[in-house]
Amino acid sequence: MVRSLHKLFVSNLPWTVSTPHLKTYVQQFGRVVGANVSFDRKTGISQRETTFTSRNQNQMSNKVEDKFNLAANYIQSHHNNFNKNDLLQFYAFYKQSTVGELDINQQPRPSFFKLQERAKYDAWSNLGSMDKEKAMESYIDLLTKLVPTWIESEQKENRNSAGTFGVSISRPKFEDKIDEEIKSIKDFIRDGNVEKLKTLLKDVNQSELNAIDENGLGLIHWASDIGNEEILSIILNTKGIDVNLKDGEGQTALFYASSCGHKNCVQLLLKHEADKSIVDNEESSCLDVAYDDEIRMILK
């Protein structure tokens, strides 16, 4: 790194102002690398010349970036020691530091089928237009708050392992832990977590509500397959739900409830005007796949 050398001439100082005093003052502008003193015997006034390297903005930024990279290495190695919320905040500061502000026009918010991705998206977008250096400083400050001795620990590990300083990390390991700890919408349905489901459905639009996931199923299919009448009722009473939404094989929620023998769910779907005449891609109806005679009687 090229450093800028500057000379500073100071005159008319009384003899009591020593070179160390002057160096202490000049150090606020940079590292003092030399000092010369001349003394006028007639006047008793000394003149001093100091040479120092300035701390320009680029040098300060590089110092922050180096410390940020060291912090990123530490978290990469110790991510299991942090909780989900802390990791989400680290993720947000990391993305803001390395990529910049999230472009919400180019990257739309993930659907609620992908709660892990949505949580990370929201944490990042909440930083708004924070500049990269501020994000780096915030990343470092958060780590220092949580682990005050982290820098000594990381420097020691680097010395012992001869590790490189400032390693580029394309995907921090802690993203996997975030993904593991944040449950999916299917988990909430399976667990019968009514309150969490209600909260999620408050923040969903019609296209998301009737979206088909990577398994070819919609939210209403999962609820009907599980057979939780309360969960299914919540979904059916959500504005915009398509009671006849078809999965990847052309089957509606009524097919799932019928084939699984969930009598109460079958009755609930019919109450919400589910169409029992629909046939799937194999030309089968919900009556054809009915679990038993009791379900068939309800469907006739």
TrEMBL record:
<dbReference type="GO" id="GO:0000062">
    <property type="term" value="F:fatty-acyl-CoA binding"/>
</dbReference>
<keyword id="KW-0446">Lipid-binding</keyword>
<dbReference type="InterPro" id="IPR014352">
    <property type="entry name" value="FERM/acyl-CoA-bd_prot_sf"/>
</dbReference>
<protein>
    <recommendedName>
        <fullName>Acyl-CoA-binding domain-containing protein 6</fullName>
    </recommendedName>
</protein>
<keyword id="KW-0040">ANK repeat</keyword>
<keyword id="KW-0694">RNA-binding</keyword>
<dbReference type="InterPro" id="IPR012677">
    <property type="entry name" value="Nucleotide-bd_a/b_plait_sf"/>
</dbReference>
<dbReference type="InterPro" id="IPR000582">
    <property type="entry name" value="Acyl-CoA-binding_protein"/>
</dbReference>
<keyword id="KW-0677">Repeat</keyword>
<dbReference type="Pfam" id="PF12796">
    <property type="entry name" value="Ank_2"/>
</dbReference>
<dbReference type="InterPro" id="IPR002110">
    <property type="entry name" value="Ankyrin_rpt"/>
</dbReference>
<dbReference type="InterPro" id="IPR035984">
    <property type="entry name" value="Acyl-CoA-binding_sf"/>
</dbReference>
<dbReference type="Pfam" id="PF00887">
    <property type="entry name" value="ACBP"/>
</dbReference>
<feature type="repeat" description="ANK">
    <location>
        <begin position="249"/>
        <end position="281"/>
    </location>
</feature>
<dbReference type="Pfam" id="PF00076">
    <property type="entry name" value="RRM_1"/>
</dbReference>
<dbReference type="InterPro" id="IPR035979">
    <property type="entry name" value="RBD_domain_sf"/>
</dbReference>
<dbReference type="GO" id="GO:0003723">
    <property type="term" value="F:RNA binding"/>
</dbReference>
<feature type="domain" description="ACB">
    <location>
        <begin position="64"/>
        <end position="152"/>
    </location>
</feature>
<dbReference type="InterPro" id="IPR000504">
    <property type="entry name" value="RRM_dom"/>
</dbReference>
<dbReference type="InterPro" id="IPR036770">
    <property type="entry name" value="Ankyrin_rpt-contain_sf"/>
</dbReference>
